[in-house]
Amino acid sequence: MPAFVQMALLAAVLATFAAAAAASTNEMEALEPSTNGDLVTATCQRIGGKLGSVDYEECMKIGLELSEGYAVSGTPILLKEYPPLPTRAPRGRVLLIGGIHGDEYSSVTIVFRWMEILDRYHSGLFHWRISPLMNPDGLLRKKSQRMNENGVDLNRNFPCPNWFDETRDYWVRRTSSNPRRFPGDAPLSEPESRWLHDEIERFQPEVIVSVHAPHGVLDFDGPPEAPKRFGSLHLNLLGTYPGSLGRYAGVHKDIPVVTIELPRAGTMPTYKEQRQIWLDLVRWLKTRLPAEPATHAAR
Ligand SMILES: [Zn+2]
């Protein structure tokens, strides 16, 4: 095991221990922030070392924090919150996720770009929680892969009704047991999908946005109306897969799920296109929210 993984694991164990002990002594309270900060720093170093388009300084500048989630290896799932501002009530809560598939590099980078926009212009219009890299093990391993460290396609691991009947059957019959589409042995068998599931429960998002590549379309699951177009990406309803986030959150839980499929996994859209997708997303969110009187999620 490489030294940095060992260190990240050790730091994760320490952080978990510190949290579990409920910081019962002043000593523990003093320990926790520096440990957490070290873990964010170590993860940003690895992201900067992997992605040509997000360097270490850019990653650190965003001010990502630890979520409550860790990948299989102990690498943290980082999160940034853009909370309600005192000046206005947000129109709704939006959860934005990049990199659920570890080899879709552009889906991580573009979320960093959009966070840079929010860092400058967050106006309190929406209450955002953003995780640019939900599958850190998939991206940050030597050869990036779609699945997590256990070889599970996290986007097939969500607890849809009939998961045991449908998901395995679909995987065997429709994908010829393609290892890249392996749904796992049970719903929420993986820490990353458990984290997202729990985060949805905690945050109660009114819209979920998940970024992928390379199909070059806009997909949508859940209660209408679907967006027609973001930038040059046009709506093309691909249908849901058993165990996918779209099937689970969009169809089963009635939370609109927008899937942004960028056209290439290894090449970013132009700067203009990155901004246009963002502007069209925000414009569409304004038509959708408030879905009901906005309330603030407790955390
Ligand atoms: Zn994907």
Written account of the structure:
The chain is globular, with a radius of gyration of 19 Å. The chain has one domain (63-288): Aminopeptidase, CATH 3.40.630. It contains 9 helices and 9 strands. The protein has helices spanning 3-20, 26-50, 56-62, 105-121, 136-140, 163-175, 191-203, 245-252, 271-288, and strands at residues 65-70, 76-82, 93-97, 127-131, 207-212, 217-221, 229-230, 233-234, 257-261. The model is unreliable at 13-31 and 293-299 (pLDDT under 50). The protein has 299 residues and is an alpha/beta fold. It has a 7-stranded mixed sheet with strand order 1-2-4-3-5-9-6. Helix 1 packs antiparallel against helix 2 (26-50) and helix 2 packs across helix 3. Zinc ion is lined by residues 101, 104, 212.
In short:
This protein is α/β, with parallel strands linked by helices and 299 residues long. It is 41% helix and 14% strand. α1 (3-20) runs antiparallel to α2 (26-50) and α2 crosses α3.
Q: CATH H-level name... which superfamily?
A: Zn peptidases
- Number of separate domains: 1
Q: Structural class, please?
A: alpha/beta
State the share of residues found in helices, binned by percent.
Answer: 40-55%
Secondary structure: elements and pairs:
Blueprint: H1 3-20, H2 26-50, H3 56-62, E1 65-70, E2 76-82, E3 93-97, H4 105-121, E4 127-131, H5 136-140, H6 163-175, H7 191-203, E5 207-212, E6 217-221, E7 229-230, E8 233-234, H8 245-252, E9 257-261, H9 271-288
Parallel strand pairs: 3-4, 3-5, 5-9
Antiparallel strand pairs: 1-2, 2-4, 6-9, 7-8
The structure holds zinc ion (ZN).
The site of zinc ion has 3 residues, from loops.
